[in-house]
């Protein structure tokens, strides 16, 4: 029998590609990071351009703060961020980003070109990146205030990932779904999304639209016309409040739409919440009918851990049982109050 193999450090490029693979599994993951960066930068307009499901081109144009030219050299380096300084800051973080990993990761598995202009700059600056590093110096160019991040040939050097991905159309569908869901909670931010070479937008949401209008443009009139407002006043003890729009009892759909759920403005999935709310609906709806749920939860930042998953799609929070209990009973109240058939039945 041969002895144990020797332990050797991985070389940096392997480490970076592995790390990138945990955050960026499909084009939609890169897009989500870029949208979050734009919102963090205070953008009110986010335009998205997609070619071949984001594998050929994924471009996000925003009108946010822009990036200081002097920061461009380390923009795509791992663990460089303008958002977090101490570990303790994490417990009060208000931005989506904090780890400084997204752009770095993308630059290890795609060709990245950044064009950016702050309002102090006289012109925009453009520079490309590969494997975390600038390719040459930033060049002056024409451009508006804000940032354009162009990602080309995603996964060009990760063959296994390329093979595992679905068709460009399916990747595009995932992108549209992500942008659409994001847009619902992003008040004051306009979104558009277009396939390269097409003149029509696949999605367009005006910055001035309210939540209901956003739901209409993403999920259609049938959903938007049967909504009731959900409001849970602040519960000081649990450090939580919630608002949203949920379908009323006239809404008839056999198709399950997974809840559009935000915790502290992060688009997340939370199976316990989904199950609990579906159960409440099950007692009101005819068998097989599925609800539509948009909820935006605000939980005191020190009670939430956003750093449990590389894609930040899962979050953990304290008092989860009590919080879910509160949400369920609030939903029950909301639905009871619109359930005229039921109140007729009980009074007759
Ligand atoms: P994080 O968001 O965790 O800080 P990223 O890799 O996503 O890490 O971004 C690194 C830094 O690049 C951000 O902290 C921010 O300063 C800057 N940045 C990225 N995208 C934009 C953008 N669209 N507008 C302005 N600054 C940006
Ligand atoms: Mg980020």
Description:
Belongs to the DNA mismatch repair MutL/HexB family. This protein has 348 residues and is of the alpha+beta class. It folds into two domains: 12-205, Heat Shock Protein 90; 221-339, Ribosomal Protein S5, domain 2 (2-Layer Sandwich). It has helices at 12-23, 27-40, 102-109, 159-164, 168-185, 211-219, 221-224, 271-282, 320-338, 340-347, and strands at 45-51, 57-62, 111-117, 124-130, 133-141, 146-152, 190-195, 203-205, 227-235, 240-247, 260-263, 266-268, 293-299, 304-305, 316-317. It has an eight-stranded mixed β-sheet with strand order 5-4-3-6-2-1-7-8. The chain has a five-stranded mixed β-sheet with strand order 9-10-13-11-12, sandwiched between helices. A two-stranded antiparallel ribbon has the order 14-15. The longest helix has 19 residues, at 320-338. The N and C termini lie far apart (84 Å). The mean pLDDT is 91. Bound molecules: adenosine-5'-diphosphate and magnesium ion. Residues 33, 37-38, 41, 62, 64-65, 67, 75, 81-83, 97-104, 147 line the site of adenosine-5'-diphosphate.
């Amino acid at each position: 029998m041969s002895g144990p193999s020797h332990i050797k450090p991985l070389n940096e490029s392997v480490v970076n590609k592995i790390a990138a693979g945990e955050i960026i599994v499909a084009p939609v993951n890169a897009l989500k990071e870029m949208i979050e960066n734009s919102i963090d930068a205070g953008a009110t307009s986010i335009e998205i351009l997609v070619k071949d499901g984001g594998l050929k081109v994924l471009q996000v144009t925003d009108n946010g703060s822009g990036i200081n030219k002097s920061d461009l050299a380390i923009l795509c380096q791992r663990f460089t961020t303008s958002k977090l300084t101490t570990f303790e800051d994490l417990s009060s973080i208000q931005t989506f980003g904090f780890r400084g990993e997204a752009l770095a990761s993308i630059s290890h598995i795609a060709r990245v070109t950044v064009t950016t202009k702050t309002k102090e700059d006289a012109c925009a600056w453009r520079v490309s990146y590969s494997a975390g590093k600038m390719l040459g110096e930033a060049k002056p160019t024409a451009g508006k205030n804000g940032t354009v991040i162009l990602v080309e040939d995603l996964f060009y050097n990760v063959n296994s990932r390329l093979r595992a991905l679905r068709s460009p159309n399916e990747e595009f569908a995932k992108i549209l779904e992500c942008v659409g869901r994001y847009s619902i909670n992003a008040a004051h931010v306009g979104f558009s999304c277009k396939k390269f070479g097409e003149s029509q937008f696949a999605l367009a949401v005006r910055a001035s639209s309210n939540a209901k209008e956003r739901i209409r443009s993403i999920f259609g009139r049938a959903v938007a016309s049967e909504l009731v407002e959900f409001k849970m006043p602040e519960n000081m003890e649990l450090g939580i409040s919630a608002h949203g729009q949920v379908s009323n009892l006239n809404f008839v759909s056999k198709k399950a739409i997974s809840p559009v759920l935000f915790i502290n403005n992060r688009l997340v999935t939370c199976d316990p919440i989904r199950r609990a709310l579906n159960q409440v609906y099950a007692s009101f709806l005819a068998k097989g009918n599925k609800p539509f749920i948009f909820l935006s939860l605000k939980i005191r930042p020190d009670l939430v851990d956003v750093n449990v998953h590389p894609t930040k799609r899962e979050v953990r929070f304290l008092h989860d049982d009590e919080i879910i209990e509160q949400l369920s009973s609030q939903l029950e109240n909301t639905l009871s109050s619109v359930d005229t058939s039921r109140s007729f039945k009980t009074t007759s």
